[in-house]
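--- STAGE predict ---
source: upstream dedup step, 1 unique chain passed
mode: sequence only
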Amino acid sequence: MEPKDIILIGAPVDSGKDRRGCLMGPDAYRTAGLAEALADLGHRVRDRGNLAPAPATRAPAMPPHVHKPAETAGWTATLIRAAEEAMDEGLPVFLGGDHSLSLGSVAGVAAHAARTGQAQFVLWLDAHGDYHTPQSSTSGNLHGTPIGYVTGRAGFHGFPLVRHPVPEENICLLGLRSVDAPERAALARTRIRRHDMREIDEHGISRPLAAFLDHVAARGGALHVSLDVDFLDPAIAPAVGTNVPGGATIREAHLVMEMICDSGLMTSLDLAELNPFLDERGRTAQVMVDLAASALGRRVFDRPTRAHD
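--- STAGE serialize ---
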């Protein structure tokens, strides 16, 4: 892989759900050696430090059960701006932070793609569909709404207008295994590609991913990859508040990342939902760092062997 300019952007977002801890995520990635791992691959790495949310107020039309909408709207505004600017300089990696960070990161990179005349694509590696709106979410947790927001669904009162919604057919949800009935019905009415763990068990993870990557390549698209910790099985990545058994194995996850690397299509990356408070001696942070390295050029023979005592 040709050396890239990698821009690390800390997004300690902890407002998208009611279980605290994700604000520690960016520094956990730094402690686990993300910058060093990417630099060892020959990339030029710059760490912009941690962002802060813009001031915002709760919109009167926002349902009362929604958790911290003003703070999340402030984060969204900040991240849209940061993402669009960083895309002019290299490949941004957003260090989360809960998955509501992607309301801003995806909307920002999509605005950049529109400005440069590219089609924006999104690969969503997650146990959940995250297609809710503030009105349809029974939990009121906005980390379950980014795909709804960036595709232009209504109901995000007080949030920045999505100037360039991502077309449904340009989104692939991979690794689904926790989708409630209303969200399932809503997704069924869309053109979003969606692949659950049963399909992956029956046919493997490479087939649907290869088909989507071929589609992105045929369109000359920009690819945003959003990796949620809960894409992985909790046996290998326990540091997540939405713990859903039956996720991707470490081998499947590295295959996904190496295929992304081989495609040469990835233009931006989220690392979301790491909650170090729930981790075991930092092992989830290390797994996520290793996966990011795989997406950016590390191969199986390059992986270090670690002793855990």
